[in-house]
Amino acid sequence: MYLxxxxxxxxQLIFNFMRPMDLVVFLVGLALTIILFLAIGNSSLVATIIKxxxxxxxxxLIVPIPNYHNVMEFTKDAIKFMFNRRVYYWKGWCVRSxxxxx
Length: 102
Prior knowledge:
The chain is mainly α. Helices cover 49% and strands 0% of the residues. The chain has helices at residues 20-39, 45-61, 71-83. Helix 1 (20-39) packs antiparallel against helix 2 (45-61). The chain is elongated, with a radius of gyration of 23 Å. The model has no long low-confidence stretch (mean pLDDT 81).
């Protein structure tokens, strides 16, 4: 039995809060934002908001939240909970068995 400090896992992460997948998501959002800034020449407010959408989504997905690693992990767990079929087997002590066991 080893006693491991609660904050020791953060030392294995990139910048103490990102996994490699989180870094990829953020860098893809950053690259898309840079490409959009170069491709869309209009400097209106709507064009600027459209240009910033990829980095905003990528940044939102890697924001740390309590009890989960980040929003992306929470979303993955929520989807898995909602769409995976769950079957619970329970046999109470006051119910007669339908298989002939007593």
